[in-house]
TrEMBL record, chains A, B:
Principal cellular location given in the protein's record: membrane
EC code: 7.2.3.1
Transmembrane region(s): 6-22, 58-76, 82-106, 127-155, 276-297, 309-333, 353-376, 397-420, 426-448, 492-514, 526-550, 591-610, 616-635
A Pfam family: H_PPase
Cofactor(s) recorded in Swiss-Prot or TrEMBL: Mg(2+)
Recorded GO MF terms: diphosphate hydrolysis-driven proton transmembrane transporter activity; inorganic diphosphate phosphatase activity; magnesium ion binding; potassium ion binding
Residues at the site labelled Determinant of potassium dependence: 486
Catalyzed reactions: Na(+)(in) + diphosphate + H2O = Na(+)(out) + 2 phosphate + H(+)
Cellular localisation: Cell membrane; Endomembrane system
Name of the gene encoding the protein in the UniProt record: hppA
Domain of life: Bacteria
Species of origin: Litoribacter ruber
Protein name: Putative K(+)-stimulated pyrophosphate-energized sodium pump
Length: 735, 735
């Protein structure tokens, strides 16, 4: 029976990839339109691939060096192996491949969506959403297949072949080696998210400053050398960055749940392999039902609501996954009382585990709704920024900062409530499983997320190619829906990163052989402070990097206008590729410093101060990173929509204001400040907190205060001795 | 011997107050200048008193209601008493009185400094610094006298009169009752700091928007109805707010050290009263040596450096206090090995305690230096903002935010290092004593801080009265030095608040009867998240409040211009008092919501979820509050000085820019955004984290999981039982 489940997981991954391939070839077969459209789309596609190639050129060195270090370090401790480096490389390669798949389909689907929009909204939605689905299924399919098959290999290699215990140290070694996969995936995600974030904003700001301001040509004008880089940026940041981010969360969540699943005790016996397999099975089933959901995303006539169609598909996937999870959990997990080795005081039943899955889905949905409220047009937060734009740039900024800070309240309460209730439902396993439940329909979430930038690009191509007005109107409808889903997607991404980091945190504590992270200890508290500071310096570096990279872009665009005669008269073509290259190089150069902080700080703290202080560091970075992420994402989103509101016209104190008015200019300032907030540093927080946790998990056996852990004799004796001293003191104290 | 020390403390407080009275009467006797100067100063003085009166009118209800609740709750638990309410009221009254003293002398010293500046810089420094010293000595004197005499009363009442143990539960009751004093002081500080912060910025922005922008009259023009409110604001925010803040830190630090001092064990016997008395004695000695230091702040001729004179006075106080602390600690504390009841594993000697005092002083000095670097003109951070102003409002904002975030790194590393090393030096008592050491020369620190706004006001009066250029030049020299000391003072204030909060945190854990705050427990982690969110919502409310209060002010100024004819022609006087009243009312109304969050959230969490979750909440609010405080203070300070740099002229890419240029306008936007950051929400973080910790300390006996604590039998048994279960599980787990 167990074998069926074990082998079902990679099988489900393969099904996902087959459906992806079918959908992908369907998109490719669609009409790409006229010659000028194809040409523009070609520039964008080549630019996107140029970014990937340049990124890979750097990453290959990183992967090789890190792989060697991992292979060497894997041999140093009993419960790891040099094979962790293989696992790491596979994770990195699959993550990079997932990024490639997403970029590839997005740069095909954009122009085909434009062409489809000539016919009908229905057709345009079909093309753009199918493009998004390819991305979603690719990411989820590769993750499920990769995790599922590596688990089978390592399970056989480290446990079955030596006749080991499925809940014992042998399984721990198997999972520790599997953690390399997650580390590989998350490392690549860091480069994709941070580099992509810097890229997209450098290109955006650079294109605007020289093109719109200095040369006086409109946005998305083909004469602007940075225009292609700007459109490439949308794909690099919103498609590949988001994809890599969720790929990392997905994998890490499953891994953390598996590590905690190993520790489950059922009626005084160990829980067997079922709790370890469960997160993989839920992920696989969620993938299958995401496929089912995609068929529900359709409109019959052009007047139907696109948002309703997306919601329908989303809820079908979620509800089917919840229902299936109920039966799977009921079937797989042992009956009776369950608890965890290191938390025997929290007992639960298998229905508690189902409850945790449900809680995870509710947390994800609530986070999306709250994020949408704080960034949507027409709602109180954005309206308050609009009103404050009427008194100038400064009050617009103050308004946005205030909204961003306020917007942390509800998400944090939801998150804290989720942690609290999922723990009550199924202990620490519950917290991890809640994250796994939330991530189960990642394929669908990502399809909805990736559809937005495709529609956005489609609109840009329609504009640049001078297509009829109704084409642009149709893509605008899709784009508007895409903006809403993008905001909701960011809420989902930060929530999933937070729960993932917590699940990793819980798994880390187990592997590090400690039983508590006591912030009453001065060194742990110091770790908490330093950890909480890291998101601040990370954000500072990311924001400053956008400024510097934009300057590089500005200089390049100025050079082309100066040195290539005839650009302005459409007689000469600008060297788009140079801009793409400049932006690519700058983004990769600028992401080294923040990336190094994320990778190295847990290693230094862990080895210098031990596992408990590292635990404090992780808690600090998670708490502060989640807050800074929500703050920056929502402030940026709200500023953006406050500016967009002026394009339609807004009423302030009885007067109407439009594009070009003084309040609108103030709102543009806010939007520009918000750009690196919401597209660079804000979303990078997700990766930061996950990557640091996964690094900690990987080094845990090396810094463990007790490699054989699970409360060893000497630790017990130490506690004993300490308690006696305390008891003696109490006697002295109480007369 | 002990009795001598016990009674020496209030005596030292009285000496401080006597010297204060002498200095105060000296200032009052100085010449206040011509009629128009006296009149202007009179308006400012009346405005300041109007604020205090209005504040007190509201506060009296708060104090009565909170006092009744405290009296009632004090009777509910064994180790408290209704007398805590008396202690609370005295703390509140003394804090209010300290604010009165400071405001009173500042509004006298300002005009007398202007008059003195007619003669020489030497004389102007003497008057303004003596004014500052009155504030410093008043705050420290009242604190030492209040704490010292209340301790004698409660020690006699709760310990000696019942023949109790100086290290036992009786002393704990005495200290718990004494905590009421700290709660009273900190509550008033909240109103002073937050209300004052809102007041000063509402008046500033209101005066500028209508006066400078709409009516086109210069800054500090007597025709502007809000001008007096603006000048009052400087006193309300920078003098009274800072004074109340440091009064609160000073008292809370001493209290926390005393609570931890009770738990000291010396060679297997309890440590006696010496470790409890020590923080009081150090505070008293620091006060005396601050008096000595004030005599060193003088220049012989007008070409001497004012900064050097201030530094001389400061270092004399610090070094004498350090030297004296060495002998006091050596004399008072028992020899041999020391440790704490609840942390027997950390042993130290009395020289370790001295080491902690030293560490505290170093941390304070470093924090001041770092803050100065990040906000000073001509240094890299401010220069980077200047450069980014050349590309517009948005890049100026991005630059400031980036600098502010970056500026958290070094202070946090210093703070973490301070926590770590002071704990190594003398356990948790060391962390508290480090804070006490840092605060020992509060009188001197505050004298240096308060001197700045006095000089600032003096310059304003010189300008408004149309005095000769050399007078303004002399006050400008003092003002420039004052700006530097203000920045350093903010660094000192946040560092002292952080260490104070940690000391209170440690004291709280003891009183709450818990032995750890384990963030590996899901509920404690949820508490950490919620706590870390509070500084965000608090900042959001404070920033938004400034916006609303400024609008009230704008409407009032507009009304006066409209309804009082002849203001513009100097024929009618504006109703300054109306503006003062409006600003006062608005600030007090707006600070209710943030104040309520600070006061109520620990009570709700403590009673609903227990002491350990409350511990998580406190850790969250402290870590996040320190970061947000540093970020906002430094971003605001850097923006301010970037703007000020344009007044002198700055070079960007080879071109010179001055006041009125486009980059200067962008820098004004940054300065306006920075105003509420650095004068309202940033400094409020200090109070927020201290007040929440002190509330927790006061409710600790009520939520204690074990009123008799210090590790009771049943807790020991519980731990025992849990450990057996774990051990059994391990057996099951390991084959």
């Amino acid at each position: 029976m167990e074998q069926i489940f074990t082998y079902a997981v990679p099988a489900m991954g393969i099904i996902g990839l087959i459906v992806m391939a079918i959908k992908s070839s369907w998109v490719s077969k669609q009409d790409a339109g006229e010659q000028n459209m194809i040409e523009l789309a070609g520039h964008i596609a080549r630019g996107a691939m140029a970014f990937l190639k340049a990124e890979w050129k750097v990453l290959i060195y990183f992967v090789i060096i890190a792989g060697i270090i991992l292979a060497w370090s894997g041999t140093l401790v009993e419960n790891s192996s040099w094979i962790i480096s293989i696992s790491f490389v596979i994770g990195a390669v699959l993550s990079a491949f997932a990024g490639y798949v997403g970029m590839n389909i997005a740069t095909k689907a954009n122009v085909r969506t434009t062409q489809a929009a000539k016919t009908s909204l229905r057709k345009a939605l079909q093309v753009s959403f199918t493009g998004g689905s390819v991305m979603g299924l690719g990411v989820a399919g590769l993750a499920v297949l990769g995790m599922g098959s590596l688990f089978i290999v390592f399970y056989n290699m480290f446990v079955l072949s030596v006749g080991g215990d499925v809940n014992g140290m042998e399984m721990e070694t198997a999972l520790e080696v599997l953690a390399g996969f997650s580390l590989g995936a998350e490392s690549i995600a860091l480069f994709a998210r941070v580099g992509g974030g810097i890229y997209t904003k450098a290109a955006d700001v650079g294109a605007d400053l020289v093109g719109k301001v200095e040369a006086g040509i409109p946005e998305d004008d083909v004469r602007n050398p940075a225009t292609i880089a700007d459109n490439v940026g949308d794909n690099v940041g919103d498609v590949a960055g988001m994809g890599a981010d969720l790929f990392g969360s997905y994998v890490a969540t499953i891994l953390a749940s598996m590590v905690l699943g190993r520790e489950i005790i059922s009626n005084d016996n160990m829980g067997g392999i079922a709790p370890i397999l469960l997160p993989l099975v839920i992920a696989g089933v969620g993938l299958l039902f995401s496929i089912v959901g995609t068929f529900f995303v359709r409109i019959k006539k052009d007047t139907d609501s696109v948002q309703a169609a997306l919601n329908m598909g989303n809820w079908v996937s979620i509800l089917l996954t919840v229902a299936a999870s109920y039966f799977i959990i009921d079937f797989m997990l042992p009956a009776g009382e369950l608890n965890l080795v290191r938390n025997p005081e929290v007992t639960f039943t298998k229905m508690g585990v189902f409850g945790a899955v449900f809680i995870g889905l509710v947390v994800g949905a609530l986070m999306s709704i709250i994020t949408e409220y704080y960034t949507a047009m027409g709602k109180r937060p954005v309206n308050s920024i609009i009103k404050q734009s009427s008194t100038g740039h400064a009050t617009n900024i103050i308004g946005g900062l205030s909204v961003g800070m306020e917007s942390t309240v509800l998400p944090i309460l939801v998150l804290a409530g989720g942690i609290y209730t999922s723990f009550l439902a199924a202990g620490l396993y519950g917290v991890a499983i809640a994250a796994a439940g939330m991530m189960a329909t990642t394929a669908m979430q990502l399809a909805i997320d990736a559809f937005g930038p495709i529609a956005d690009n489609a609109g840009g191509i329609a504009e640049m190619s001078g297509l009829p007005k109704e084409v642009r109107e149709r893509t605008d409808i899709l784009d508007a829906v895409g903006n809403t889903t993008a905001a909701a997607g960011k809420g989902f991404a930060i929530a999933s990163a937070a729960l993932t980091a917590l699940a990793l945190f819980a798994a880390y504590v187990g592997l590090a052989g400690i039983n508590s992270i006591d912030i009453y200890k001065a060194d742990v508290l110091a770790g908490l402070f330093v950890g909480a500071m890291i998101p601040f310096i990370f954000s500072s570096l990311a924001i400053a990097a956008v400024g510097r990279a934009a300057m590089d872009m500005v200089n390049e665009v100025r050079r082309q206008f100066r040195e290539i005669p005839g650009i302005m008269e459409y007689k000469a073509k600008p060297e788009y590729d140079k801009c793409v290259e400049i932006s690519t190089k700058a983004s990769i150069r600028e992401m080294v410093a923040p990336g190094a902080i994320a990778l190295i700080s847990p290693i230094i703290v862990g080895f210098a101060f031990g596992p408990e202080v590292l635990g404090g560091l992780l808690a600090g970075v998670t708490v502060s990173g989640v807050l800074m992420g929500i703050f920056q994402n929502n402030a940026g989103g709200a500023w953006d929509n406050a500016k967009k509101s002026f394009e339609k016209g807004v009423e302030i104190n009885g007067e109407m204001y439009y594009k070009g008015s003084e309040p609108h200019k103030a709102s543009v300032t806010g939007d520009t400040v918000g750009d690196p907030f919401k597209d660079t540093s804000g979303p990078s927080m997700n990766i930061l907190i996950k990557l640091m946790s996964i690094v900690a998990l990987v080094i845990a056996p090396h810094i463990s205060i007790n490699p054989h852990h699970n409360l060893p004799d000497d630790a017990v004796m130490e506690i004993e001795a300490e308690k006696e001293t305390v008891a003696e003191n109490v006697e002295v104290l109480e007369p």
